[in-house]
Known about the structure:
Blueprint: H1 6-11, H2 20-29, E1 32-34, E2 40-42, H3 45-52, E3 57-58, H4 88-97, H5 106-110, H6 113-127, E4 132-134, H7 135-140, H8 142-152, H9 159-172, H10 183-207, H11 215-220, H12 231-244, H13 247-262, H14 264-272, H15 277-287, E5 294-298, E6 302-304, E7 307-309, E8 315-317, H16 319-322, H17 357-375, E9 378-380, E10 400-403
Parallel strand pairs: 2-8
Antiparallel strand pairs: 1-2, 3-5, 4-10, 5-8, 6-7, 9-10
Helix pairs in contact: 6-8, 6-17, 9-10, 10-12, 13-17, 15-17
Amino acid sequence: MTADTLLERITDYANRPDPWPLYAELREAGPVVRQTDGSHLVGTYHEIVALLHDPRISADPRNRIIPSTEPRAGELPKPPFLRLDDPEHHRLRTLTMRPFGPPHTPARIDSMRGEISRIAGELLASLRGREQVDVVDDFAYPLPVAVICRLLGVPREDEPMFREWTDVIVAAADIGSQEEDTAERDKAGVLARQEMGQYLLNLADRRKDRPTDDMLSAYANEPDEALRLTPDELATNAVLLLIAGHETTVNLITNGVLTLLRQPAQLNLLRREPGLLPRAVEELLRYEPPVHMRERFPLADVDIAGTTLRKGSRVVLAMASGNHDPARFTDPDRFDPTRPDNEHIGFGSGVHVCFGAPLARVEVQTALGLLVPVLGEASLVQDPPPYRTNAMLRGPRHLPVRFGTG
């Protein structure tokens, strides 16, 4: 095996439980390694950060030079703001997040802590007395789903329907090494986005002139035409909010529980010193991040670390590898809730840094704050657990945990 097959091997489901040796191999071969499909894989911290901050590196997949047998860039649908570049990225991100308030306003985030704590407490109470639970289905998934449904104004009873759409959309958004295998998956993803977008548009329309306290109502009743999203913009970006508002948080909570059950000394430390929990969450974002990779597309030839990234090529930034780069982090393969100087890239960096990071932090701190006191009586039923197929959004599909000594 050679370095030019690393992306193929990292995205191979067989390596989902333990991709870390492959990331170490990438860093040793890198910083930038050309792959057999013509893309470049970047796995070192400083180079990833440099590219995330470089305005010549686009997040928009329409800037990829696609072979003539593939759909032309102009035929691709306009992506949500997460996959756009400034100034359009900034405009849509600002308008989409406006009803939520400034994305880093502590008062706005803090005002939600009570509701999040109530939901998490009710979920935990429903599990009492059970000998075995699935951390994903019973806790890590329903918590952020309930929160994002409350924020957007999506009826909780519709969750089975949008969960099915979400699974299809997330599968289509995965990073793979063999483009020819993705045509049907991508077609299904586009259809699911359209159906989910129309569903959210219909909800927003029903709130027009009859608003409730949610983001869809705010979009539908925006009085200033200059600040109003078009129907297409509302549909596309509301889909993004609904999916991104829970997908990464599910993984982060689940990865956190898995990590703590594997490392009882660190679990006991957090039980003794709960004040360390915010730092522990930051360390989880570095050590077991919910997002492993991002795609980027150079707008011009870009030279980095002795390699030229050609205009329109695909560049895969392996942020999870960067978070374990010994050139940036001391003893990077060790989970250390007291780690100082933890400037991880678990939520990305630059203008496209995760817009929901402040909310996710509150949700995960709340969730683990309730779980840590009871995890001392828990053990993993299966290790490694079954993982989701997605290589980009990596996390267990199920995490069965047994309570008691039996």
